[in-house]
Amino acid sequence: MPKSVQIQLRPFSKVLVANRGEVAIRIFRACSELGIGTVAIYSQEDRLHLHRYKADEAYLVGKGKGPIAAYLDIEGIIDIALRYGVDAIHPGYGFLSENPQFAEACQKAGIIFIGPSVDVLKAMGDKVSARAIAEKAQVPTIPGTKEAVETEQDALIFAKEHGYPLIIKAAMGGGGRGMTVVRDRSELVQSLQRSRSEAQNAFGNPSVFLERFLEGPKHIEVQILGDQYGKRVHLFERDCSIQRRHQKVVEIAPSLTLSKQLKDTLYRDALKIAAHVNYSNAGTVEFLVDKSGKHYFIEVNPRLQVEHTVTEVITGRDIVQCQIRIAEGHPLDSDTIRIPSQESIKKSGYCIQLRLTTEDPQNNFAPDTGKITAFRAGEGFGIRLDAGSGFEGAVISPYYDSLLIKVCAWSLHFDLAAKKALRAIQEFRIRGVKTNIPFLENVLRHPIFLAGECDTGFIANNPELMTFVSRKNRANKVLQYIADVTVNGFKGIETNQKPARFNKPMVPEVTRETAPVSPAMQIFRDKGAKGLAQWVMQQKSLLLTDTTFRDAHQSLIATRMRSFDLLNISHATSHYTTPFFSHEMWGGATFDVALRFLHEDPWARLRQLRAAMPGQLMQMLFRSGNAVGYTNYPDNVVEQFIELAAKNGVDVFRIFDCLNWAEGLKPSINAALKTGKICEAAICYTGDITDGKRVKYGLSYYVKLAKELQAAGTHFLGIKDMAGLLKPEAARILVTELKNILEIPVHLHTHDTSGNGVASLLAASAAGVDIVDAALSSMSGATSQPSLNALVAALSGSERDTGVDLLQIQRLADYWEVAREPY
Questions:
Q1: How far apart are CA 140 and CA 325, in angstroms?
Q2: Burial class (CB in 10 A: 0-12, 13-18, 19+), 549
Q3: Phi-psi group of 558: left, alpha or beta (phi > 0 → left; psi -120 to 50 → alpha; rest → beta)
Q4: Residue 176's pLDDT is what?
Q5: Are strands 166-170 and 746-750 parallel, antiparallel or unpaired?
Q6: Which is it for the CA torsion 698, 701, 707, 710, positive or negative?
Q7: Phi and psi for 213 in degrees, rounded to 5?
Q8: Which of 356, 385, 574, 576 has the fewest other C-beta atoms within 10 Å?
Q9: What residues of the chain score a pLDDT lower than 50?
Q10: Is 727 in the active site?
Q11: C-alpha to C-alpha distance for 821 and 234, rounded to whole angstroms
Q12: pLDDT at res. 4
C-alpha cells in the first residue's frame, strides 16, 4: 500500500444481513467472532425460520409484500437499518447482492455496503458490461451480444451471425436463473421470453444477453479479494463444473486436472479484470475452459458465492470476515486481515462441497416442501456444515431456494475427501421431505468424478447417476408396523383387542332388541323428502343432528375412529336418540382415512351402521365435484358415487362447495334428487355479516345464494360454518332473513372453535332455525361441534324443548369419554 494513502477506519458495532437462510447465519457467525452485533430481517413466510433466531435482533421486512419481494424491499431494509442503528449491511448472495441501486441507497443513508463500490457493481453486476471490460483488459471472452438484447430481432440477427447453440443469460444475478440453452431458431423467441421473466422474478431486472454456447467445458472460478487501497490477491480456483440446469451442485477446490500454467493464467487474468475496475472486497471471476485447454472469461460475481466455503477450507481464510474488515477500511496487510502478500496465502489439501437440497431426484428434482420430522447430520473430522433449515421441526416452504445444508469434506488427498463426503451424507437421516442425497452418493462414487474430469455436461451425459438404490428407513418402518398392528391387528391378534385401553368404555344396556323408528325417518318413509321438509317446518321443537359419528372425531382426532368403536355404541345410540332428525356418520375425510390409514372398507362401515341403526336418518357430507376425495371428478363419477351411497344406506346428502359455486353444486344436487333421498345443499359461511365494512360476504350474498339453491330443487338449506365464525348476533340475523325468504327448512352446522358455539345455536333457535348440528359433550367443543348435552339442557322447558332425555344422552357421552382415550 502506498505510504501516501491515508487509512480511514470505520469500525462496525452492528451489521444487518439483507438475506435469509444459510448465508445469513454464516454472516452472523462471522460477525459474532468479531464482536459485532447482528440484525436479521425476515419475511412473513420466514417468521419461524432459523436465521431470525441466530441474530441479536430481528425485524419483519416487506409487510404486505410477497415472499420474494419482501427481501427486495430496498426502502424497507434501509428504514430498519436507520431505525435500529445499523452501521453496515451485508447483502449475502442472491436477492439484492448485486444491485447497484441498493448499494447506492445504503451510501445515501450513510450505511456501509459490505461489497464492491456502486461503480463496480454497475460495471461487473451486468454481465454484458463485464465482458466489455474483460475485452479491454485483453482477457479472452466468448462471442456474445455487446449489450442486453432489447428485441427478438436483435437476438435473431446475432444467432444468424454466430450460429447455434447459444445460451441466454440474465444480465444481473446468477445461480443458473434466467439461463437457457438454445439449439435452433424455433426455440430462440420462446426461450428469450422465459429467461426475461425468470430474470425479472429472481433479480428484479429482465435484461438478458446472448453468448455462443460451449459444449462440455469446465467451469472454473477464481476467488479474489481487494482492499480499498489498490491491493488485490487471489485465493486460488474452484472447479464448479458439476451443474444441473446451470445450477452448481458440487464444487471442488482446487481443480485436479488443470495444469499449473493454466491456473496461473487464470489467476493473472482474474486480477487483471479486478485491477481494470479498481475492484475492492470479495468477488469471483468465472471462466470456461474448453476441451483444448483454452479459457474464456464469462462473468464476475461481485459478491459472496455459495461455494466460498471450499476456498475457506483449503486456505484457512475467513472470506466473510475479510469482507467486513475491508468494508471497515482495513488494508489486506493489516493486523486484522493478515494478508501481507500473495505468497502468504497457502493452500492445503482438497475440499468438496455438496449442496444438499430438498429436491426429489426421482421426480426430476422437483422441490419438496413440508415439515422435517427427523434430522441427524453427518459430522466428524474434516466435515464442515453450513445450514439454514437443517433441524428437526423446520418447515420447508415453496417460496425460496431448496438448499437445506452445505456439506464440505476436506482431506489432504482428493480421493480421501470424496470418501469423507460420502460417509458424511450417508450418516444423514432426514425425514419428512425428499432430498437429493441418493443423487449425491452416485456422484461421489462415479469414476469420472473421482478422476476430476467432470465438465458441465457430466450430469446430462451420465444417466446412471439417476439410478438409485432404495433407501432403508428401518426406524420409521418399525413404528409404522407397530401402529398398523395396534390399529388393525394381524392373524392371531384380533383387531377388536386394539388399541389397548386404560379403561373399557361402558356400553349402555338396552332392553329392547329392535330400536324404535325416529319420527323423522317415519315421515320420510311415508311422505318422501318433500313431505319430510314440510313436517320439519311445522315442528316447534328444535331438531338435532348428532355429528359424533363423523365430524366430531374428524375435527378432534383426525377421523381416526375405527368402525369397531362406532358399531359398539350404535345400537344404544339408535335407542336413546329417537327424537333426533339425523346422524352424520359418513363421507368427508372419514372415507379417505378409513381406506388409507385404518385399512377399512368405508362402504362396509356404511352398510354395518345402516344395519345397526335402521330407524335413524343417516347423513353424509359430500364435497360436490370432489365427492369424498381431494380432486375434481367427472360428473358421471360423482353421480354414480351418490347412487351407490344411497343404495348402501345414506338418507341425507349434505352437499357443499367451499367456494360457494352454485353451478358446481347443481350436478350433485340433481344426482341426489334422482335417488329419491333427501338433498341438503349448503352455503359456506365466512366473514362477519354484522360488520358493515364487509361488502362481498354480507347478508345479501348469502340470501342470493340461498335463493339460487332453493330454485335448484334442494329439499333443505344448510348453513355450513366450517371455521366457527358465526357469532350469535350474526346467526340471529342470517337465520331470521333466510326463514323469511325461503320455503324450505334451514339446517345450521357450526364449530365451537371460538367458544361461542352453544350461544350461536341458541340465537339461531330463537330466530326459528329448524335443525342444528351438535356433538355429544365428551366429543364436543374446540374444533368440534358445540355440546349437544349443553344445548338440550339449555332448551329444556322452553318453547323449543328438544324432547331428548338428558340422562340417556349422558350415558352415550360417558361411553365416548372412555372410547376416545387411546386415540
A1: 33
A2: buried
A3: left
A4: 66
A5: unpaired
A6: negative
A7: -100, 120
A8: 385
A9: 1-3, 497-499
A10: no
A11: 67
A12: 53
Q: Give the model's pLDDT for residue 487.
A: 65
Give every strand in the sheet of 180-182, ordered side by side. Answer: 180-182, 166-170, 208-212
Residue 336's identity, in one-letter code, is T
**Distance between CA atoms of 758 and 684, rounded to whole angstroms?**
19
Tell me the pLDDT tens digit for each residue of 451-479: 999 999 999 999 999 998 876 667 667 87
- Rounded Cα distance, 627 and 632, in Å: 8
Taking alpha carbons only, the member of 703, 549, 516, 518 closest to residue 621 is 549
Give the burial class of 754: count Cβ atoms within 10 A of its Cβ; 0-12 exposed, 13-18 middle, 19 or more buried. middle
Which residue do the cell numbers 429472481 mark? 202
CA–CA gap between residue 125 and residue 172 (Å, rounded): 6
pLDDT confidence of residue 687: 86
Cell readout for 774 is: 351438535
Q: Assess contact for 116 and 302: CB atoms under 8 A.
A: yes
* Cα–Cα dist 31/230, whole Å: 25
- C-alpha grid cell, residue 93: 448472495
Element (H, E) at 526: helix 519-538
Q: Which phi and psi (to 5°) does residue 39 adopt?
A: -130, 130
What's the CA gap between 141 and 89, in Å, rounded?
A: 33
Distance in angstroms (rounded) separating the CA atoms of residues 404 and 356: 6
CB 803 within 8 A of CB 579: yes
What's residue 557's pLDDT? 86
> Strand 57-60 and strand 37-42: pairing?
parallel
Return the half-sphere exposure (C-beta side, CA atoms, 13 A cut-off) of residue 160.
Answer: 6
C-alpha to C-alpha distance for 232 and 226, rounded to whole angstroms: 4
Amino acid at residue number 170: A
Burial of 263 (0-12, 13-18, 19+ CB in 10 A): middle
Question: Residue 288 pairs with which residues in a beta bridge?
Answer: 219, 296
Q: Is 18 in a helix, a strand, or coil?
A: coil
Instruction: Report how far residue 415's alpha carbon sits from residue 411's, in angstroms, rounded to the nearest whole number.
Output: 8
> What region does 174 belong to: left with phi over 0, alpha with psi -120 to 50, or beta?
beta
Q: Which of 586, 653, 642 is nearest to 613 (CA)?
A: 586
- Please state the φ and ψ torsions of residue 16, each to the nearest 5 degrees: -100, 135
Q: Give the bridge partners for 134, in sequence order.
A: none
**Calpha distance 421→409 (Å, rounded):** 5
Cell of 621: 357430507
User: Position of cell 501481507?
Assistant: 340
Cβ atoms 219, 239 nearer than 8 A = yes
Whether 607 and 566 have beta carbons less than 8 Å apart is answered as no
Residue 7 has a CB neighbour count (10 Å cut-off) of 12
**Where do the H-state alpha helices sit in 91-184?**
100-108, 118-124, 127-136, 152-162
- Alpha-carbon gap, residue 352 to 646, rounded angstroms: 64
Measure the CA–CA gap between 696 and 51, rounded to whole angstroms: 39
As to burial, measured by CB atoms within 10 angstroms (0-12 exposed, 13-18 middle, 19+ buried), residue 484 is: middle
- 583 membership: H or E segment, kind and range: strand 582-587
Closest CA to 674 of 701, 636, 709: 636
CB 809, CB 577: distance < 8 Å: yes
Is the CB of residue 169 less than 8 Å from the CB of residue 313? Answer: no
d(CA 237, CA 640): 67
Question: Which residue among 122, 248, 420, 677 is the active-site one?
Answer: 248
75 and 104 in contact (C-beta within 8 Å)? no
Cell reading at 488: 388393525
Note the pLDDT of residue 212: 85
User: What is the C-alpha separation between 811 and 732, in angstroms, rounded?
Assistant: 32
Question: How many residues are recorded in the chain?
Answer: 823
User: In the structure grid, which three cell numbers stand for residue 336, read together?
Assistant: 486484522
The 8-class DSSP code of residue 742 comes to -
Buried b / exposed e along 743-753 (16+ C-beta atoms within 10 A):
ebbbbbbbbbb
Tell me the C-alpha distance between 301 and 93, whole Å. 9
